[in-house]
Specification:
9 strands, 8-stranded parallel β-barrel, 12 helices, about 35% helix, binds the ligand Oc1ccccc1CN[C@@H]1C=C[C@@H](O)[C@H](O)[C@H]1O, alpha/beta, about 325 residues
């Protein structure tokens, strides 16, 4: 039976999110199925620079070394985000907001240190994550970044990353990317960056999907819309939850046959779409390796298990695997 990376080797990279535990314990499974990895948390600002000037690169170094030793790419995730930021980043010594110039200086110092360290080795970065507001007509999500710097914090993040590594592919990354309203706002944001000559090379579609949403039509419309920008597309954080968003039930202790069947149907259609648009879509990363661990075990319902991948808790193929590996 073909492995995941073998099945798509002439189409797009197949990646998995890893963490400090799985990079140690799941090496055989990673080497078998994947040719790209992403740090689930360990390359976010909170983990890379927990205190000002104190950079902790050891886990990221280990992940990159594993990737290089095994012929894998590593996607850098992420440089500028409103979440998992260390508190000090936005505050002066009195706990007040720093100035625009000081926050730009701190943003540049962080990006310079991190991107320069891995220059020529990390070929794609999620430079800015989730800057678009989900609801209504407002384009930009409220955050300390936009409050203190303004909407052009995004422009600066990409410019600083490009200066640090001119050869790295720079991505804007977001979720709910296939919902028509948010799709249009992401499109406008990225088009604006391009129109201003900001160095951006790709759009990351997180693809945190489920058995019921988004529709195939909306996914295809999003892939087509983003493709109009002439940029690379990466699916960056794929998982297919067995629960609809907002379903807070806690009685399901293992996936039902119906769930697994529907999940297999959905995965087959998703990968058929990815294959159809492979000239634009160059990488598909799962936000984990197997059902043994997923961030969805605690989100959005604390303590509830989920089974979102094509490999089961033992790392063995699920019905969905057999529908995408042909
Ligand atoms: O699906 C969502 C729903 C609400 C908020 C954020 C997200 C997705 N947000 C992602 C998920 C997990 C984190 O590890 C990633 O870094 C982040 O990009």
């Amino acid at each position: 039976m073909k492995t995941l990376k073998e099945s798509f080797k002439d189409k797009f990279l197949v990646g998995a999110a890893v963490n400090a535990e799985t990079i140690e314990n799941d090496q055989e499974l990673l080497k078998k199925h994947f040719n790209s990895i992403t740090a689930e948390n360990e390359m976010k600002p909170m983990h890379m620079q927990p205190e000002q000037g104190n950079f902790t690169f050891d886990v990221a170094d280990k992940m990159l070394q594993f990737a290089e030793d095994n012929g894998m790419e590593l996607r850098g995730h992420t440089l500028v985000w409103h979440n998992q930021m260390p508190k000090w980043f936005f505050e002066d010594e009195n706990g007040n907001d720093v100035s625009r110039d000081e926050l730009l200086r701190r943003m540049k110092a962080h990006i310079d240190a991190v991107v320069t360290r891995y220059k020529g080795r990390i070929h794609a970065w999620d430079v800015v994550n989730e800057a678009v507001e989900d609801r209504g007509e407002q384009v930009y999500r409220q955050s300390k970044w936009i409050d203190i710097i303004g909407e052009d914090f995004i422009d600066y993040a990409f410019k600083y990353a490009h200066e640090a590594d001119p050869d790295a592919l720079l991505f804007y990354n977001d979720y709910n990317e296939s919902h028509p309203n948010k799709r249009e706002k992401i499109y406008q944001l990225v088009k604006g960056l391009l129109d201003r000559g900001v160095p951006i090379h790709g759009v990351g579609l997180q693809a945190h999907w489920n058995l019921y949403d988004p529709s195939y039509e909306n996914i295809e419309a999003a892939i087509k819309r983003y493709s109009e920008l002439g940029l690379q597309l990466h699916v960056t954080e794929m998982d297919v939850s067995v629960f609809e968003f907002g379903d807070e039930r806690t009685d399901v202790k293992e996936p039902t046959k119906e769930m697994l069947h529907l999940q297999a149907e959905r995965y087959e259609r998703f990968f058929d779409l990815f294959t159809k648009y492979q000239e634009h879509l160059t990488s598909v990363t799962f936000w984990g390796i197997s059902d043994a661990y997923t961030w969805l075990n605690d989100f959005p319902v604390k303590g509830r298990k989920n089974w979102p991948f094509v490999l089961d808790e033992k790392g063995e193929p699920k019905p969905a695997y057999h529908r995408i590996v042909k």
